[in-house]
Specification:
284 residues; mainly alpha; transmembrane; membrane
């Protein structure tokens, strides 16, 4: 507590914890090392968590999309066959994910530059500043949702077609035309359900509001189960949207050709050319 009153306004979270101990003492150094260690563990846990989430997402996407497409083409689906397909598909999905990540990264850089220009130009004005900021937030949200929908449909394109990476994203962008509002509504409904599950978990499990320890455990397991169900349901919906968009653009899918394309993943057929999988566009 050797700081002047004017300096205390700049103390952050960890600064408040450390300020009670005299500087350059053994207690201060020990507490500082403990705080640093905790932060390192926290970020390592975050990295491991997001790595696991990414791997699980890619594996689940490949398995669910392949299963739904197999059902659509009346192919026999077994757990062993699905598991043999996953290692062959996830590499293509990883490329598509990296391309989507690069797109989002560039999008946020552009948004950051625009926000910086707003800060140094009209942020202090009484009317134009707030209005421009609200318009910026609306446009940013629209762009973010649009890119998210294109990326999700692009993952389905990666599994069911020869395209992957940026080509899958472009194909997805063309397919989603005409069904964008339906895809956006589904996107918001799924994410709203996710927020509800997270809110229930936070209030009743983490904070333990008016509930016993056993009840918190049971509710936590229920929330985890609902989260998995919601995630898998979202993957199924993405695959269905793909077939709906193909139908909307009169791009008929030959079930036999698609079935042969799916067999490539289990090594029973030679890889087909794109024109064999993607049939001609039927104009009505």
């Amino acid at each position: 507590m050797d700081r002047e009153q004017e300096e205390m306004q700049f103390l952050g979270l960890f600064g408040i914890y450390l300020d009670w101990a005299p500087v350059d003492t053994r207690r201060y150094q020990k507490l500082s090392d403990a705080m640093l260690s905790e932060r390192i563990y926290f970020w390592l846990f975050k990295i491991a968590y997001f790595t696991f989430l990414l791997i699980f997402s890619l594996l689940s996407t490949s398995a669910v999309v392949y299963t739904i497409a197999s059902i659509y083409t009346a192919r026999e689906v077994t757990f062993r066959k699905v598991m043999s397909v996953v290692p062959r598909v996830w590499k293509r999905l990883m490329v598509t994910f990296l391309c989507a990540f690069a797109t989002f990264f560039l999008y946020h850089i552009v948004a950051g530059v625009i926000l910086f220009m707003w800060l140094i130009t009209i942020a202090d004005t009484s009317v134009a500043g707030p209005v421009a900021f609200i318009i910026f937030l609306i446009l940013y949200a629209i762009g973010f949702v649009y890119l998210s929908v294109v990326w999700q449909l692009g993952s389905v394109v990666t599994v069911l077609e020869e395209s992957y990476g940026f080509r899958a994203m472009i194909k997805s962008k063309n397919l989603i035309k005409g069904k964008m509002w339906i895809a956006i509504i589904i996107f918001f409904k799924l994410n709203l359900s996710l927020l509800v599950i997270q809110y229930v978990f936070e209030i009743f499990v983490v904070n333990g509001w008016s509930i016993s320890a056993l009840g918190r455990l049971g509710l936590g397991i229920l929330c985890l189960f609902l989260l998995f169900k919601l995630f898998l349901f979202g993957l199924v919906i993405q695959t269905v949207i793909y077939f709906v968009c193909k139908s909307y653009h009169h791009e008929n899918i030959n079930k036999s050709a698609l079935s042969d394309h799916l067999e490539v993943y289990v090594g029973e057929y030679e890889r087909l050319k794109p024109k064999d999988v993607q049939l001609e566009q039927a104009h009505v």
